């Protein structure tokens, strides 16, 4: 099992952003409970903005209580814990290092770009993020550390012909990269909360609107889930033209993938509704 993803069969779906937010230091809190916004926290750890965002996404830096505005904050204790990790900051930087696109990822893996693309399209490599380039094409991001680990663990896949299963996927023009990324993204978000309504909101955010309405017919519950929905992942484009290209990446596509998220959401809602019965309000407590 990888550190930041749980593999789920069939379909090699990986079940697993960081909300960059500015928040001032809480001056009235005692030193051991000082709260920092993301910009200050990244500076305290000596990380670039993208490195810090990736560290939060992967759970390497844990967010603390949110500000009343909803902005993510980080405790002094958490920053001290990260700094006390062996090899800091080099080890942390190595774990969040990413490479963008097939050429750069192939170089790390020690193969040609076409083999890298085939391995990723067939679900052997899971992207950790994406960006949209100026040609409005999706550029997938990979963790460099995972590529190096894969090269050692699956050395046989770096040479020779593709196995039969991969050849079938290639013939069908299958591309598992979006699905694998969604699974990882959802799984990482679920790891960051234990609140049943927030967990349900994470699962709901991946479903197409018509599917969500079928699972959650109550409009009031859909309002709660929409209010708790996670923000787009770090790196999601802001320009409308690029955002339109990236938007389909956020929604489940294949029938079996949609079924998986519908079933998971239904289960999560059972727990969330049970919580609401014991409290005077609908939603997280």
List keywords for this structure.
mainly alpha; disordered N terminus; 285 residues; two-stranded antiparallel ribbon
Description:
48% of the residues lie in helices and 8% in strands. By secondary structure, the chain is mainly alpha-helical. It has three domains: 1-96, no CATH class; 97-176; 193-277, no CATH class. A hairpin with a 4-residue loop joins β1 and β2. α10 crosses α12 (219-228). It is globular and about 60 Å long. The two termini are 32 Å apart. Pfam families: DUF6397. This is DNA-binding protein. InterPro entries: DUF6397.
Structural class estimated from helices and strands: mainly alpha
Please give the alpha-carbon distance between the first and last residues. 32 Å
The number of distinct β-strands equals 7
How many separate structural domains? 3
Task: Evaluate the radius of gyration.
Answer: 20 Å
Mind describing the biggest β-sheet? 3 strands, antiparallel
Q: Outline the low-pLDDT stretches.
A: 1-30
What is the topology, as strand order, of the major beta sheet?
A: 5-7-6
**Helical segment tally?**
14
- H and E string: EEEHHEHHEHHEEHHHHHHHH
């Amino acid at each position: 099992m990888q550190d930041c993803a749980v593999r789920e069969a069939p379909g090699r779906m990986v079940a697993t952003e960081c909300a960059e937010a500015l928040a001032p230091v809480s001056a009235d809190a005692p030193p051991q409970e000082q709260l920092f916004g993301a910009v200050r926290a990244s500076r305290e750890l000596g990380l670039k903005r993208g490195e810090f965002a990736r560290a939060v996404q992967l759970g390497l830096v844990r967010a603390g209580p949110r500000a009343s505005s909803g902005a993510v904050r980080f405790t002094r204790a958490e920053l001290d814990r990260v700094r006390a990790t062996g090899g800091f900051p080099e080890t942390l930087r190595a774990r969040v290092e990413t490479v963008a696109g097939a050429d750069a990822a192939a170089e790390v893996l020690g193969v040609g770009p076409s083999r890298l693309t085939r391995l990723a399209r067939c679900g052997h490599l899971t992207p950790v993020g994406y960006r949209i380039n100026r040609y409005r094409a999706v550029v997938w991001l990979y963790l460099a550390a995972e590529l190096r680990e894969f090269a050692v663990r699956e050395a046989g896949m770096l040479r020779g012909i593709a196995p039969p299963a991969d050849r079938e996927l290639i013939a069908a023009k299958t591309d598992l990269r979006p699905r694998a990324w969604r699974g990882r993204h959802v799984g990482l978000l679920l790891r960051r909360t234990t609140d049943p309504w927030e967990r349900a909101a994470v699962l709901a955010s991946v479903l197409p609107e018509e599917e969500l309405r079928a699972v959650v017919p109550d409009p009031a519950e859909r309002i709660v889930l929409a209010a708790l929905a996670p923000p787009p992942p770090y790196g999601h484009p802001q320009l409308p033209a690029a955002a339109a290209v990236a938007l389909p990446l956020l929604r489940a596509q294949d029938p079996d993938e949609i079924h998986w998220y519908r079933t998971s959401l239904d289960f999560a809602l059972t727990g969330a509704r049970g919580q609401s019965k014991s409290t005077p309000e609908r939603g997280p407590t």
